[in-house]
Amino acid sequence: MELKKRRHKMLNLVWRGLRRFAQQIKLLTLAAALSAPLVSSRTPTTLEQIQSSGKLTIISRNGPTTYYEGTDGFTGFEYHLAKTFAKRLGVELEIVEEEDLNRLLDNVGESGHFAAAGLTVTERRKRNVAFSHPYMSVTQQLIYHAGDPRPNSVEDLIGKHILVVNGSAHAERLRELQKQHPELVWEERHDVEMLDLLEMVHNRKIDYAVVDSNAYDLNAAVYPKAKVAFAISEPEPLAWAFPLSKDTSLLDAANEFLLTMEQSGALVDMRERFYGGHGDIDYNNALVFARRVKERLPQWRDKIKAAAEEHELDWLLMAALSYQESHWDPEATSRTGVRGFMMLTLSTAKEMDVKNRLNPDQSIAGGTRYFRKLLDRIPASVTGQERMWLALAAYNIGYGHLEDARVLAQQHGANPNRWSDVKDYLPLLSKRQYYKFTKHGYARGQEAVDYVQNIRNFYTILAWNDLERGHMTALAMTNKPEPKEDDFNFVISEAIANQQFAYRAITKSM
User: Fold this and answer.
1) Which of 33, 65, 256, 322 lies at a 20 to 30 A Cα distance from 14?
2) Residue 318 burial by CB count (10 A; 0-12/13-18/19+): exposed, middle or buried?
3) Residue 123 above 80 pLDDT?
4) SS3 431
């Protein structure tokens, strides 16, 4: 009897154990079923995260070959290429600026999804980042002053002051050359742009510099005394830099985009837009200008006069401005996309209600109205003809950049209300040590200075010609009894001095 009870008790214990085991199996099965979606899910790829957030962030370096603020918003080769890629992905583009190239590369994948800053593909850099398909090739060029003996080899660089951008491929190349030429030394700075280096050679502040061929082509006309001595490298590819990662979704998308751009010809068009030639017209040739006054201006004179009178402006000034912009060609188109008689950007045309920029009537009316708006925007503290010169600079470079130059002038004790002072600070907007502290960043300030001077030159010639016809009111804004040769810049003055009889023969026949 006792044995029977023990068996029964043991069977009950076994049965309860089996029931508990079965319950545990059920719970495990339920847990597995509930967690199955989690187990099967995966972390979104970088590309999926970007498309989900609606924002693509790149790291770049503010400057002429990368991105900067133009009269129609941000521009620059890298900006437009990255902007097109972001648009292809259906997202907005965000730029994180980093001045130092070493930090820029270190932050790839952290503060930005990739770096787009005119980066040369090098073996050293490939250890730390993954490069995209190249979008351009450049050559490293040694720059010297045209007035000095031209160096022909690396040996000629020994003992000279050479400056390059810190962390650049140029510095890497010089280190390679140093292995064969131990006495070769150079200086590296992170607070300069290649444009700064050209300017420093041009002004003999340094002996030599190394810049990329695209940077030289873009700025050679600004600093004509900075010339190419020889190339210190073979053509090298430029590409975007991505983090080294197993997740290559964004890199793959970028490569597909760049290849498509290349195969369609869109990449060539974009390179031509930013690095193509400026044409062969010499704006400073007085004789060419005089011929165009005779051949082209008569058909536009009445329209320019009517628009100027409507906005209480000097029509000769508007004639000089429009010549500087388009050479009085209503179908003119620049490599940056501005078009028409007054060369309006798309945004300015829209702002001035110009429907067709190639319509000369609309362009003249819109451009004159826009200049009047800029003139009225100049602070009341600026008086007299100074308002005209500052407004002309704003027409070229944008009002924001003009204000940056005025702020710089004031900070350095100069008069921000006087053109002769402001024009000394506009060129600083292309120097990294200055523009990195301004509100609107990099700008081609020297071009704005040349632009205003050219218009003043053209205006003086027009007014002189108008005086010879008896229209004495033409020079009212200059406060001068008669234009003299020293009103012209050196090129025009020399042309008139050397071709005085020809010049008068042409102008008197108008």
Assistant:
1) 33
2) buried
3) yes
4) coil
Give me the mean pLDDT over the 349-374 stretch. 94
CATH of the domain at 154: 3.40.190.10
Higher-scoring residue by pLDDT: 437, 484: 437
Window from 19-28, 226-235, 264-273, 301-310 with minimum mean pLDDT: 19-28
Q: For the chain, how many structural domains are there in total?
A: 3
pTM reported for the whole predicted model:
0.65
Same domain, 385 and 501: yes
- Please tell me the predicted confidence (pLDDT) of residue 222: 73
Q: Which residues are catalytic?
A: 325
Residue numbers of the domain that contains 54: 48-133+239-275
Nearby residues of 138 by Cβ (< 8 Å), 6 or more positions away: 120, 212, 213, 214, 235, 236, 238
Distance CA 313, CA 332 (A): 24
pLDDT (mean) for 149-171:
95
149 lies in the same domain as 197: yes
Angle in degrees, 0-180, between the axes of helices 315-326 and 386-397, rounded to the nearest 10: 30
Shared domain for 314 and 393, answered yes or no, is: yes
* Domain shared by 215 and 263, yes or no: no
